[in-house]
């Protein structure tokens, strides 16, 4: 079996969050979804589980951080700079925030950070391994 990751995120409005992630390019997997959770697929090995606060609380009693916190930054590799830019534009147009941190352009690496409607931080990143400076 291929190893994969399921990132679990508490969300205040499941429908809004599902639409947001679809706008970023995630695909909805109804096999792992119901009225309390939505599985959003980025790749064969990367899935994001959007969980209502009630569902989230069945897994942990730890508090849900406020939308203004940064408990983690999740990075997704993209095929091009244009895809990085498109993700940020989609975030801004669908209830999230583009460029919540300064854009970074190192030539061989380009990234922009965005926030989803609940304040979860994502980094869209493109890298050209052939252009990485040697040490």
Give a short summary of the structure:
The chain is α+β, with helices and mostly antiparallel strands and 135 residues long. The protein has helices at residues 14-24, 53-56, 81-93; strands at 5-11, 27-29, 37-41, 46-52, 73-77, 97-98, 104-105, 109-115, 121-127. The longest helix has 13 residues, at 81-93.
Textual characterization of the structure:
It contains three helices and nine strands. It has helices spanning 14-24, 53-56, 81-93, and strands at residues 5-11, 27-29, 37-41, 46-52, 73-77, 97-98, 104-105, 109-115, 121-127. The strands form two sheets. Strands 5, 6, 7, 8 and 9 form a five-stranded mixed sheet that branches. Strands 1-4-3-2 form a four-stranded mixed sheet. A hairpin with a 4-residue loop joins strand 3 and strand 4 (46-52). It starts with a strand and ends in an 8-residue tail after the last strand. Helix 1 (14-24) packs antiparallel against helix 3. By secondary structure, it is an alpha+beta fold.
